[in-house]
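Take a careful look at the protein record below. Let me know whether the C-alpha cells fit the sequence:
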Amino acid sequence: MALSVLICDDSRLARNQLARSLPSEWEIDISFACNGQEAIEKIEQGAGELVFLDLNMPVMDGYETLAKIKERDLPAMVIVVSGDIQAQAKEKVMALGAMDFIEKPIHLPTLFSVLRQYGIFDGEISSDENQQQSLSSLEITEEVDKLELFQEMVNVAMGAAGSKLSTILNQFINLPVPQVNYIAASEIAMAINSIRQNASVSGISQGFVSKGVNGEAILIFDDADFNNILSLLNYPDASDDDSYQLEALMDIGNILIGACVLALGEQTHLQFSFTHPVVLGQHMFLERLLETNVNRAKRVLAMEVGYTIDNLDIKFELLLLLPESSVDELSGRFFVGKAS
C-alpha cells in the first residue's frame, strides 16, 4: 500500500522541488498544503502519514502545526524542512515531536540519508536520478515565476542571517514570511509595512555587486530598541551616546546584510563585493530617511524581512533591492548553477 506523503510549504517552488527530489520508484501518494492549517486538515483525512513541514508560513506556521499534531495525537511522522537553521529552532521542533530536521536548500544525499535512517525508504537511486529530480529540472515559467524563485531564495538567505545573529546575541530570532514584490521607487517607504510612519528610526545602506549583478541593502532600526540592542552587544551603559548607537547599527548591519547577501551568492554561485556602508540617517522619520537613499531604479525587486526578538521587544527591517537587470541575471544563474 502506498505511503501518503504530505509536503507543506507556502512556496510552490519549494513544494515542487521537494516532490521532484523524492525517488521515482518509491510507492507514495503525494499531496500538498500551503500552510499548517491545511496540513492539519489533510492529516486528519489520512493524507499525511509522512509530512515534510516548513516552519515560516502564513496562517499557521510549522511550530504551531507541530503543536497541534502533538496535542491531537495525530498519526504523522514529521520531518521539518526549513531555511531557519538556528540551533534554537532545531531544538524547538524536536521538543514538539519532529522526527528530524533538514536544512534548505535540500541536499539530496542528506534527504535520502534521513529517509533510510528511519526505515522510511530503503531503496537505491540511480546515478542519473540526482540530476533528473533536482531543482535544475525546473524552469522559469508561468508556473514557477521569478517572484516565487526569489521568495524561496531570500527565505534561505534570511535563515542564514538569522542563525548568525542568533549565535552572536544568544537569542532566538523570530523569522517572518519574507515579502517579495516589484515596486516603484515611490513605494519603498510603504514596503516596510511593520514600521509606523511616525516612529523615529535609524538606518544604513550598503551596496553589493558581482558579475552582472548589483543591489542595495537597507537596514532600519526603531530607535526605541537601541537600549536593548546595546545591552545584548555588551556596549557600555551609554544609551544616549549617538556614537555607540551608530556602532551598534553598523555591527548588526554587517551581520545581517553580509550573511544574507552571501547566502544569495551561494545559491547563484556568485561572490559579492560590498560597498562601504552609508548612514541613511539617525533618529529620523522613516519617510524622510528613505528619501535620502541613492541609486534608485524606476522599478526594483524588493525583498523585505522583518527580524524580531520578542522577549526584548526588538525589531529591525532588512530590505534588499535589485534592479530588473540583476533579477534576470540572478534567476538565470540560479538554474544554470543547479544544472552544472
Observations:
- The first strand starts at residue 3 and ends at 8.
